Each structure stands twice: as C-alpha cells, then as structure tokens.
Amino acid sequence: MAKKRMKFTFPPKLITEPVIYNLGHRFKIVTNIRRAEVSESRGWVVLEMEGDSAEIERGIAWVTTMGVRADPIEGDVVAG
Amino acid sequence: MEKATAIMSYAKALQCRECHREYPLNPIHFCEFCFGPLEVVYDYAALAQSISRQSIQRGPLSMWRYRDLLPVSREEVVDMNAGFTPLIKAHNLGKLLGLENLYLKNDCVNPTYSFKDRVVSVAATKALEFGFDTLACASTGNLAGAVSAHAARAGLRAYVFIPADLERGKMVGSAIYGATLVAVKGTYDEVNRLCAEIGDKYPWAFVNINVRPYYAEGSKTLGYEVAEQLGWRAPDHAVVPVASGSLFTKIWKGLKELSSLGLIGPVSTHMHVTQAAGSAPIATAHAEGTMMVKPVRAQTIAKSLAIGNPADGYYALKTLKESRGAAAAVSDDEVVAGMKLLAETEGIFAETAGGVTIAGLKRLVAAGAIKSGELTVAFITGSGLKTQEAVESVVNPLVIPPTLAAFQEAIGKPAGPARAR
C-alpha cells in the first residue's frame, strides 16, 4: 500500500461537484483531507491518498481529466 | 573519517506554519497533522543575550557572519564564501528612474553566480550534520550549479534532476562539478511530481524538499546584509524577484529578526513582489485581492522564476499585506529592456530575474508606490552569463576590414590628434 500527499486545486465549475467522494468510489483509494479552503470562485484541498500506487496514479489521472489540478504538497520543486 | 564538532545553535525546533505544532530539528519538511510546511524557530531570548553588531562584525566577510541566526550546529560549515555581496548605490539608474536613494544588492557575484549559494550553503551543512552522503535537487539552472558545487566542496555525492529539454549550457554548469545529471522526460508537472516522490523515498538531502526548512533560512542573510550595509537600518522599500516566494518571505523574516533582537530599529520596509507576467500567480492573487494563489502554467523567458505553483505563495501574500507592499508583473519584452537598462546604467549584467526586478521597479515608481527620496533596495539575484540567449540581439558589431580608414568610416568621425604620453 502506498500513501501520497497531494494538493488539489479546483476550478469554479467543480466547486459544487463531489469530486473527492467520487474519487473514493471510482477507485480503491482512501482519501483523508487535512486542510482545505473553498471560496465561491476557487478552492483547494490538501489530502492524503492511500491505496495501491497504480490505483492512486489512475485516480490522479482521473481527477486531472475532470479539470482538477493535482500537485505535490511541496508545490513546484523544480527550481530555477 | 573527519570528526565534526558540534557547537551551540539557537535553533530550537521546527514549527508548522499552519497549526504551529512543533517538531524536533530533523530532516522533515511538513507537519504530520495538517501537512503544512515547517519552519525553523529560534530561542530569541538567548540570542538577544549573546548577539551584537560587534559580534557579527567580527565574523567572516561572508553569509556565515550571521551563523548564530542560522540553523546549524556544526562548527565546520560548507562555506564557499557565499554572501556579503556588494550593495551599491545606483546613481545612474536612480537618476533615470527619478530615485535619489536607490541601491542594488548584487548577488551575481556569489561562487556560482546566484543567491542560491546562500541557501545551498546551509543545506549542504545540514546534510553533513544529519549524516547524509548525497545532496540532490530538481532544477533548471541556478540551483543545479549551487548544489553541484557545494556537494563537491563538502565531499557529498550530487544528483541533479533536470527537464530533458534543458539547454546544454546549463547542464555543463552543473556537470562540471561531477554531479550526476538525471534528465527527466515528461511534462513540467510530471517532473515535479516525480522529484517530490524521489525526495520522499531516497535517503538523500533533497535541498528543496526534506531539508527545505533549513535551506530556506539561508535567504535571510540577504536581509541581514542589506541592513548591515545600510549602516544597521532597514530600507524603506525592498524590490524582490519572486518565484516560490521563499526568498521574499525570508528577507522580511531577516529584517524583522534583526529588529526584534535590537540590532536595528523598527522595520517599516515595504516589501514589493516583481514577477514575470507569464508566471505571476502571486502578483495576480494580490491584484485580485485574494489570499488564494491559483497555480498557473509558467511561460516566460525568466526561467529561474518560472514557478507556476509557488510553495510559499500564501506566505508571500501575507508578507505583502503585512508590509504594505505592492506587486508588479512585467512582460518578457520589459524583462529584456530591464536587463539592458541595468547593464547600460550600472555595469551589472544580471540574468532574466534581474530584468524582472528592474522592470518591476520601474513600474512601481510609475505607479507611485516608491517615491524619489525613499531608501530603496532592488535585489539582483543571478548573473546574466547564464541567460545570454535572452539578450543576444544586443550583439551588433561594426564589421570592418583591417584598415584605419574603414574604422573611421564605420564610427563616422576621423581621429583627433594623438595624445602625448
């Protein structure tokens, strides 16, 4: 089993969608939200995902196709 | 094997910037509870008892004169003489911009030609302290050079992860020091994700991942130096090129620390953010009046600032607010014009990030955020030799045959009488 810490950033059109609920139902991933902030125009969620690492990758690919931006919690680590 | 001597450090813990939980000083970078970033906190009461302007002035002419304010407890630091770079009064540029009190902090003259030597000097020292044998980073230029050089100096192995399409010249600037370059084929986001994962899995000191809380502290020295070089005072304005937001927040932290220790008076510096418009998530959030940074796909010639998802974006916005600073986002054309202006007026050839600073400064003056007599420091963080391609158009030589007549014709005037010796 693998664990991954990610930050999801939501565009306005997805703010009202149960994306994380669906992520947990479509894939064998346990999600655990640690921090979040949501306004009417945008939102982000910092969460941990636990599951098979290939399943986590599939889950990340799926949320990305939905329009969510998925980043490591460290932000961009490729520095200048 | 060399036996390292431990000395007293005033760093007392790592603290979560969000929930304020404290952790021991280990190679960790996020809070187990809320996943917030960790920051070094110090025993300021004890520091205040021992530190003085004199004790700092007795130190070496490098960033390590401020070692009491850095989180190291090893006597032998990895020191390549980074820091204590010139702070010069910019008479010509100041006149042109209508600023009587403009100074430039020239960090081009560090050992690997950028301010990254400051942060990596601390990171490499911590790597030895923690017993790591490998120093690593993911970089497109400045950080790669600084990590590779400091690893060589410290006797550490170096792994440097780069996007596969990075320019050859930038690879040379890292490989020459004996670092192992790993060229990652993938999108920028994929490279980021992979490096975060590698940083998590390997027993290495990954400078901007697991030792990031320590690494970032190195940037405070820019704030300390500016205050000391101004005669122990904080400037009225600091104009800073911003990527992850770390340097920006640490300059502010440095100034405030000096003040709380009684080494300078109250700090009323306005901290100004300058970004390239193609990678300006912090300036954009500021303009929109929100504290929520929206990640962007960075696209700018200022590659050393091309961070679309800044780790310290929120904290940079907090600093902007607290210091009543302003933000400017400048186009790539303005970046090039800024580089030329700085070189032509003050003789400093800065990289594209320096062009962002100067172009941003120009905008801030035009917007009335900075007034003529106010003491202003613009931070020039890296050398132009690394990003020559951005200003190749300046090369336009007079091509002549080897005759005096041809030369005179080319410059459009005959020679005057020869001077006597």
Overview of this structure, please?
The complex is a heterodimer of chains A (80) and B (421). Chain A is of the alpha+beta class. Chain A contains two helices and five strands. Chain A has helices at residues 19-26, 53-66; strands spanning 2-10, 29-38, 43-51, 69-72, 78-79. Chain B has two domains: 11-80 and 116-215, Rossmann fold (3-Layer(aba) Sandwich); 87-112 and 219-394, 3-Layer(aba) Sandwich (Rossmann fold). Chain B is 37% helix and 15% strand. Chain B is globular, with a radius of gyration of 22 Å. The termini of chain B are far apart. The relative contact order of chain B is 0.12. Chain A binds chain B through residues 5, 9, 34-35, 37, 39, 42, 44, 46, 48, 69, 71-80, and chain B through 18, 29-30, 33-36, 116, 137-143, 161, 163, 188-189, 191-193, 195-197, 199, 208-209, 212, 243-244, 290, 292, 294-295, 303-313, 353, 382.
SSE arrangement:
The complex is a heterodimer of chains A (about 80) and B (about 425).
Chain A: E1 2-10, H1 19-26, E2 29-38, E3 43-51, H2 53-66, E4 69-72, E5 78-79
Antiparallel strand pairs in A: 1-3, 1-4, 2-3
Chain B: E1 11-16, E2 22-23, E3 38-42, H1 44-50, H2 53-57, E4 87-89, H3 91-97, E5 102-106, H4 116-130, E6 134-139, H5 142-154, E7 157-163, H6 168-175, E8 180-184, H7 188-201, E9 205-206, H8 212-217, H9 220-229, E10 237-241, H10 246-260, E11 270-276, H11 281-287, H12 313-323, E12 327-330, H13 332-346, H14 352-366, E13 376-380, H15 404-411
Parallel strand pairs in B: 5-13, 6-7, 6-9, 7-8, 10-11, 10-13, 11-12
Antiparallel strand pairs in B: 1-2, 1-3, 4-5
Helix pairs in contact in B: 4-5, 5-6, 9-10, 10-12, 11-12, 13-14
